[in-house]
Design goal:
heterotrimer; A mainly alpha (95); B alpha+beta (486); C alpha+beta (483); B: 486 residues; alpha+beta; Amidase signature (AS) enzymes; eight-stranded mixed β-sheet; three-stranded mixed β-sheet; 16 helices; C: 483 residues; Arc Repressor Mutant, subunit A; 3 domains; three-stranded antiparallel β-sheet; 15 helices; elongated
Chain lengths: 95, 486, 483
């Protein structure tokens, strides 16, 4: 199954991954190969089978509502590419 | 000294045959001397290792040494290490030094183990050959022109090349077992939820599980006893108390019912590999085990289901790498969109990008039912196959990988061919079952792995079964001609 | 043409937990930027979420208060999109299996009528951080303190037909969450935020018109104004033969207009799927029933009880039960004074005016419920008149002490000494020859009205402290003697 370049561009936009003009054809073709592989799924009848998101049928254990985290801001900010006045900086956010 | 197993090291340290500092220094020297041939380490933490070793020696002298006190190991670079760069094999995290430890790392620290450094891996654990690493491929110590397998190729190669007696690893679709098979090491992927995922960088959350790679089942048992345990920080952790996995190693295997799935011996399996696996099964028969043919009819759908589910989960798991709070940020972003597009476009390698795009596709409007939902239904069918098989047998055995190590570059251009490397291992991840690989022979001087799949939480029995085989065979003791590789 | 407005609301309510929905970081408002964003909130690699028990308890209580089905099994999903205030690149929320299913509540309108609004569902989710747009060399600053704060998003059916109904619904939600104590409901701090889906159609038409979504309208007043102005905009377009674009719009309170948020119009595909880091949350019947048993009395029940127990009018009861603190205040004042109606009048009258003037909440009232009760008791036992009571009330509010202290200190005690009053009446009659003459010559029917002059003079002479009933009684007798 082939994936057209427009689809790849749409996916790349959703996933926020820049794909260069030169590689888009190759990306499309390889993506097509993978989708051809996964299309084998269509061969099996799964009517009435409930989807399985987790391998074990466990249920969630909840955490008690207590504050356990101390302020580690300086440790974390030190990892960031650009910060100022305790804030993470990004190119202007326009609403 | 580098040939010692973990069990031997534990005894040797307690008996004062050598000190942890001596052993650690020796291994660090070997890494410095030889690892350029294998590229199994991304970061070596020599100074820190020697400090830890000195502290361990003091504890050993005082007699309050915990289980693995003074034993040097290596950690896959997917586990966060406080103060030590944790790259996950990616340019994206080339500069990332976490201020916290993964639960697995904490557990080994608590047990007194020494960390030699961080091992190479496929980028974000996405690969079966270690060729997707930003730091270059790991070379197989048995033949450096060949792949080590992946994604835990660095851990497997480090153990095979006797640079470390054991190493931590992770397995999402075969990433412990397949490199173990290709490097003649013993590796175990525990039941999903047995080992905490806290601090282990996620690839596909519902499939990822950490486990050890070492030289034999006994060493794997020692390591698993330290690694596994309850952790409230991981919602999917099964919260089982730690246990001593070495306790059952000596049980006899007479009467053991071994399921042999016919689907694991079909088309695509190298006939020589098949023959070595059959030899191993015969060995088990000699030990009194019974072979029972079982069927896992949905085996052929495991790879397709996996390549929907794993990329879907990964596509969301990897969204946090956005160039804002840590990791790679592109130069001079023009605007917010440009920051995202280029940081991720430049920071992620091809295979990671491909999987993110596949996952995005599988979840996108109009395709969710046909892909994601369908794959999760097939996943249940695959699990049911195993549940039915385990009604009749104690363990299931078959090949780990379809063929021995292939040449570096041989499958790099064909993702689908690469994906089929994991055809026998992926189903256990989908089902959450434990699986392991142990050496069972060679084909043209290249190792072959026997896979043992166990029932849920049955790791102790699997290790017992593997250990008994290793008592009557010496495949696991074979090692590559390391001198010739240098 | 007569148009009908159709409104559905999505209300986000921050839950008053100590820690976040998936981490142990504090949720306290107002901390320095990023000091309450822990490794999990920052989406550091390898970190994992563990849900907060209290958030589930609060959400369940809310569902019960809304007469809704409780999701005994609820599942968190990931909603994928990129935004700098969303560190993981997805929001952990609920979609297919939310904690609260369909329900319904009564809303009460100003004209005394009531109406049922259906709840579509309510789900738990995590809040995002904040983008600060002050200029950092042309960049924005990101504060992630709020990231991960638990929210319930409450989604109504499109059952409201006017801005007033929307406000009544919002007030009802506010009143329920504050009664339950699951949120402070403070709209000014963003603890409660509202999006409105607005469309219009010709009256009698069954098909819904194309709707627009008004984002983040953050006060009751703005909700009303935003909906009105948006409905007018839509009607103008339709009457001019145009059509409505389905889009997200922002209400600009300064200009009192809505405008399109084009940045949000890029086709979103959120790619929801179950969060693999979290397992289904299963609540037992026992758990839910126990919470049901522990629910506090809610506004409607309280209002009904105030009417039956205290004989309040429906209107007064409604007013007094909107806020739990106010209802508690009333009940304390009513019980300790034994005069429920007087208490209600004082609270909705003088006290409400005072609080409004000083911009205070009932919790900050300078006159406590006990003090008000003390004041009412002195009115009741004729120690002071209602008129003097207003003076005393102001004095209490100014911190001069309780009613008895103020009355004592200022010497405001009502004069009920018959002799003293008789003397005052005699003095006034003696000094008012002309008025007495007029009174005598007037028609029988006009005389009661003419008494007002004398009463006023006597009150003046007593500095307002003479008992008005006694004045009337004695004055009437003495004037009649002159006839």
């Amino acid at each position: 199954m082939a994936v057209d370049e427009q689809t790849v561009e749409k996916l790349a936009e959703l996933a926020r991954i820049a794909i260069s003009e030169e590689t888009i054809e190759e990306v499309s073709s390889r993506l097509g190969d993978v989708l051809q592989l996964v299309d084998q799924l269509q061969s099996v009848n799964t009517e009435g089978v409930s989807p399985m998101a987790h391998p074990l049928d466990e249920v969630q254990v909840l955490r008690s509502d207590t504050v356990t985290e101390a302020d580690q801001r300086e440790d974390f900010l030190a990892l960031a590419p650009q910060t100022e006045e305790g804030l993470y900086l990004v190119p202007k956010v326009i609403d | 000294m580098h040939q010692l197993t973990i069990a031997e090291i534990i005894r040797g340290l307690r008996d004062k045959q050598f000190s942890s500092v001596e052993l650690t220094r020796h291994l660090l020297e070997r890494i410095a001397q030889h690892d350029s041939n294998y590229n199994s380490f991304i970061t070596v933490t020599g100074e820190q290792a020697l400090q830890q070793a000195a502290a361990a020696d003091e504890r050993l002298a005082r007699g309050d040494a915990p289980a693995m006190c003074g034993v040097p190991i290596a950690h896959k670079d997917i586990f966060c290490t406080n103060g030590v760069r944790t790259s996950c094999g990616s340019k994206m995290l080339d500069n990332f030094v976490p201020p916290y430890d993964a639960a697995v790392v904490e557990n080994f620290q608590r047990a007194g183990a020494i960390s030699l450094g961080k091992t190479n891996m496929d980028e974000f654990a996405m690969g079966s050959s270690n060729e997707t690493s930003f730091y270059g491929p790991v070379k197989n110590p048995w033949d450096t022109a060949r792949v080590s397998g992946g994604s835990s190729g660095g851990s497997a190669a480090a153990v095979a090349a006797q640079l470390a007696p054991g190493a931590t690893a992770t397995d999402t679709g075969g990433s412990i077992r397949q490199p173990a098979a290709l490097t003649n090491t013993t590796g175990l992927k525990p039941t999903y939820g047995r080992v905490s995922r806290w601090g282990m960088i996620a690839f596909a959350s519902s499939l990822d599980q950490a486990g050890p790679i070492a030289r034999n089942a006994e060493d794997v048992a020692h390591m698993l006893s330290v690694m596994a345990g309850s952790d409230e920080r991981d919602s999917t952790n099964l919260r089982r108390a730690p246990q001593d996995y070495t306790a059952d190693l000596d049980n006899p295997v007479a009467g053991l019912k071994i399921g042999v799935p016919k689907e694991y011996f079909g088309e695509g399996l190298n006939p020589e590999t098949a023959a070595r696996v059959q030899d191993a099964l015969k060995e088990y028969e000699k030990l009194g085990a019974k072979l029972v043919e079982v069927s896992l009819p949905h085996t052929g759908l495991a790879v397709p289901a996996y390549y929907v589910i794993a990329p879907a989960e990964a596509s969301a798991n990897l969204s946090r790498f956005d160039g804002v709070r840590y990791g790679y940020r592109c130069e001079n972003p023009a605007d917010l969109r440009d920051l995202y597009m280029r940081s991720r476009g430049e920071g992620f390698g091809d295979e990671v990008q491909r999987r993110i795009l596949v996952g995005t596709y599988a979840l996108s409007a109009g395709y969710y039912d046909a892909y994601y939902n369908k794959a999760q239904q097939v996943r249940r069918l695959i699990k049911q196959d195993f549940v039915q098989a385990f009604e009749k047998v104690d363990v299931i055995m078959g090949p780990t990988a379809p063929s021995p190590a292939f040449a570096i570059g041989a499958k790099a251009a064909d993702p689908v061919a690469m994906y089929l490397e994991d055809i026998y291992t992926i189903a256990t991840n989908l089902a959450g079952l434990p699986g392991m690989s142990l050496p069972c022979g060679q084909v043209d001087n290249l190792p072959v792995g026997l896979q043992i799949i166990g029932n849920y939480l049955d790791e102790a029995r699997m290790l017992n079964v593997a250990h008994q085989y290793q008592q009557v065979t010496d495949w696991h003791q074979q090692h590559p001609d390391l001198a010739s590789a240098v | 043409m007569e148009w009908e407005i159709v409104i559905g609301l999505e209300v986000h309510v921050q839950l008053a937990t100590q820690s976040k929905l998936f981490s142990g970081a504090s949720t306290q408002f107002g901390a320095a930027p990023n000091t309450q964003a822990c490794a999990i909130d920052l989406a550091m690699p390898g970190t994992l979420p563990v849900p907060n028990e209290e958030a589930f308890r609060f959400a369940t209580m809310f569902g019960l208060a809304m007469n809704a089905e409780i999701g005994k099994r609820s599942v968190f999903e990931r909603k994928n999109y990129f935004y700098p205030d969303l560190p993981k690149g997805y929001q952990t929320t609920q979609l297919a299996e939310p904690i609260v299913g369909p329900g319904k509540i009564e809303i009460h309108l100003e004209d005394g009528s009531s109406k049922t609004v259906r709840l579509h569902h309510a789900h738990l989710e995590e809040d995002a951080g904040k983008s600060l747009h002050e200029d950092f060399h042309g960049m924005s600053g990101i504060d992630l303190n709020r990231a991960g704060t638990p929210l319930i998003e409450i989604v109504s059916e499109p059952d409201m037909r006017s801005a007033a109904e929307a406000v009544a619904y919002l007030k009802k939600i506010h009143s329920i969450v504050t009664y339950l104590g699951i949120s402070d409901g403070d709209m000014s701090q963003g603890s409660m935020r509202c999006d409105a889906n607005v469309s219009v159609r010709l009256k009698g038409e069954e098909k819904l018109g194309t709707r627009t979504e008004l984002k983040n309208i953050n006060s009751f007043r703005f909700v009303e104004r935003a909906i009105k102005v948006e409905a007018e905009r839509q009607i103008d377009i339709l009457e001019d033969g145009g059509s409505i674009a389905q889009e997200t719009r922002l209400y600009d309170a300064d200009k009192n207009e809505t405008r399109s948020m084009r940045s949000k119009e890029v086709a979103n595909d959120y790619r929801y799927f179950p969060c693999p880091d979290l397992l289904p949350v299963v609540l037992t019947d026992d758990y839910v029933e126990k919470l049901r048993g522990e629910l506090p009395e809610l506004p409607d029940a309280k209002s009904a009880r105030f009417q039956s127990d205290y004989g309040l009018s429906a209107y007064d009861a409604e007013q007094l039960t909107q806020e739990r603190a106010l209802a508690d205040y009333f009940e304390t004042a009513a019980r300790s004074s034994g005069e429920a109606k007087l208490a209600a009048n004082w609270i909705t009258g003088e006290l409400a005016a005072l609080l409004n003037r000083e911009e205070l909440s009932i919790a900050q009232s300078p006159v406590s419920a006990e003090q008000l009760a003390g004041l009412i008791a002195r009115i009741k036992d004729n120690t002071i008149s209602s008129k003097i009571a207003k003076q005393v009330f102001e004095a209490i509010a100014n911190g001069e002490g309780d009613a008895d202290t103020v009355i004592e200190k200022r010497g405001l005690k009502q004069v009920s000494d018959t002799g003293a009053i008789e003397k005052m009446v005699d003095d006034v009659i003696a000094a008012s020859g002309a008025q007495v003459e007029n009174y005598r010559n007037a028609d029988e029917a006009k005389r009661p009205k003419m008494m007002g002059y004398f009463v006023g003079q006597i009150m003046k002479a007593s500095k307002g402290q003479a008992n008005p009933q006694l004045i009337n009684q004695i004055l009437k007798k003495k004037l009649d003697e002159l006839l």
